[in-house]
């Protein structure tokens, strides 16, 4: 097989991927904050890194790959939403996490090997690594300080701070518009631990009852589950700064390692009319809403139609095209086959997950590769023929007219054309179109199909 190449945000280049240990390939991806239904933009990293997970399992063997995706179940947005709805934090996070799992399963994503919840890694007791111990070590090593009940990371203590985002500390400080809390030594110092007020979730710590800052959880969970240095760390491009920069600061300073992960991968934004889809802009569609109208496999293919580092516009046209393409593929594929990717598809994916090339390869496979190879490839990619069949029979659009009536109108139109009454012929074509029926005139006569 050709070498696997991945674009690394750290080096800003597409490099050959060499795992630390090919018998234990380790990947961490930042998962959802569970306060509300995920939107279809949140599904992009899920689908992209699911594809990478499948590729790594193919290349190194399923038993040699560990994929960790966390669930953030401690966050101020969660506290606020639970209070608003009058339910407990646990009820809200359980309900939202369950919904997330249903959504992404329908999108054809495999369950990651481990899905740790942040709250389980705050304070674990014994010698197990957790967030409290990580903060203690950072203080002991001179990278963090306590101030006014908070513990802050001292960015000035780390010369390499800003390397991933390629920003210098001076630039960042000059540009810092956030109001700087008086207890901070430097404006870019970030919170590792903060005190909880009455009624807020709180854990015991050497700094009093409190809770962790957001970035801390990923450093603790990745180290506990994958080790101090692992292979791949992923997430959306908006996480590069400050989230991933701060994860790197915490982990490398705590463990005295040069790196946290060797390869950093970031998916581009899913956009609506040129803007990032996000909860705060209010321009979002939930995964659930998309799945009410489309089978998950169609949404999955639409998502993969653009390369993962490029922005993707989420449009009805994109979904319609994906639906048509999947129909063509499934009609040509054998009804069952073991999941096995065709070599051309593996090669396309090994080139930094080049999904547009992968799609072109599948088209080629359809005409040249045979029904079994096509079916095996689709199964490997997470496309399910049964889901598609159900969709075709249950939800495929129906014409607004009975078939006999459509055929009678087609005959009447042909008769009008023979008599050169083109106005009448066009009128009949429009009448059919209004009922959702499109006509195609060919050498063998006129055929019709129901358009969406
Ligand atoms: P959040 O719950 O906001 O932390 O987001 C969860 C994941 O979804 C992160 O990896 C984000 O980078 C990613 N994400 C959020 N919005 C978008 C978007 N519009 N397009 C692509 N990825 C996104
Ligand atoms: Zn993270």
UniProtKB/TrEMBL annotation:
EC number in record: 6.1.1.16
Localization annotation: Cytoplasm
Superkingdom of this protein's organism: Bacteria
Gene Ontology terms, MF aspect: ATP binding; cysteine-tRNA ligase activity; zinc ion binding
InterPro entries: Cys-tRNA-ligase, Cys-tRNA/MSH_ligase, CysS_C, Rossmann-like_a/b/a_fold, tRNA-synt_1_cat_dom, tRNAsynth_Ia_anticodon-bd
Ranges of residues in domain Cysteinyl-tRNA ligase anticodon binding: 404-448
Locus of motif 'HIGH' region: 32-42
Binding site residues for ATP: 279
GO terms classed as biological process: cysteinyl-tRNA aminoacylation
Textual note on the cofactor: Binds 1 zinc ion per subunit.
One GO CC annotation: cytosol
Enzyme superclass (EC): ligase
Keywords assigned: Aminoacyl-tRNA synthetase, ATP-binding, Cytoplasm, Ligase, Metal-binding, Nucleotide-binding, Protein biosynthesis, Zinc
Family annotation (CDD domains): CysRS_core
Motif ('KMSKS' region): 276-280
Family: Belongs to the class-I aminoacyl-tRNA synthetase family.
Entry protein name: Cysteine--tRNA ligase
Organism: Methylopila turkensis
